[in-house]
Amino acid sequence: QMKQQYDTRIKKIEEEDTQRDKKMGEMDIRLTEVERDKSGLGWKMDKSEFYLRFQNVQEEKGEDLVEVMANILAEALEITIEKMKDGMDETFRVYTRYAMRNKLPREVHIR
């Protein structure tokens, strides 16, 4: 009878052990997925940290800033305008103290 009780306890412990192993395997999988997501997020953040700054680009009323900058950059890099536009995520003008103080056009930032 004692042997039977010990056998049932051992079986119970083994079942708990296998369940624990399954849970640990699932947690390990989740952890690797989270780490992969974090590394991808870091790459996106690094990518968005870099942008080009242009000073003294004259402003015109009703200008298409993307078109103007794509023309300038495509000519300088000797590539097509369409290819240049594909590489530009954001284009915007920024007022800086330097530009205001010296009465210059706003800076153009391209990301």
From TrEMBL:
Name of the protein: L1 transposable element RRM domain-containing protein
Tell me which species this is from: Micrurus spixii
